[in-house]
Structure to design on (74 residues):
C-alpha cells in the first residue's frame, strides 16, 4: 500500500528507578484516542493540538507532549 505522506517524531522520557518503560518504534496505521473525536472528519482540520487534547481528555496541567500521553495510558 503506497503512502501519501510519512510523519516521523522522536520523544524520550527519563524513567525513575523501579519503573519500567516501553516504546512503540514503528506504526503504519492511524489510531484515534477514545472517546472518539468530532462527528465530522473535516472538523479535525480546524482543531489545534491543544483543542484536540482537551476534547479527548488529555489535559494534564504541568505535563508536556508525550508525558501527557504516558500519564493518560497509565
Amino acid at each position: 500500500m503506497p503512502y501519501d505522506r510519512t510523519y516521523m517524531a522522536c520523544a524520550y522520557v527519563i524513567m525513575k528507578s523501579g519503573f519500567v518503560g516501553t516504546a512503540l518504534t514503528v506504526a503504519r496505521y492511524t489510531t484515534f484516542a477514545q472517546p472518539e473525536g468530532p462527528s465530522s472528519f473535516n472538523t479535525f482540520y480546524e482543531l489545534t493540538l491543544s483543542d484536540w487534547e482537551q476534547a479527548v481528555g488529555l489535559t494534564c496541567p504541568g505535563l508536556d507532549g508525550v508525558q501527557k500521553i504516558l500519564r493518560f495510558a497509565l
The first helix runs from residue 49 to 55.
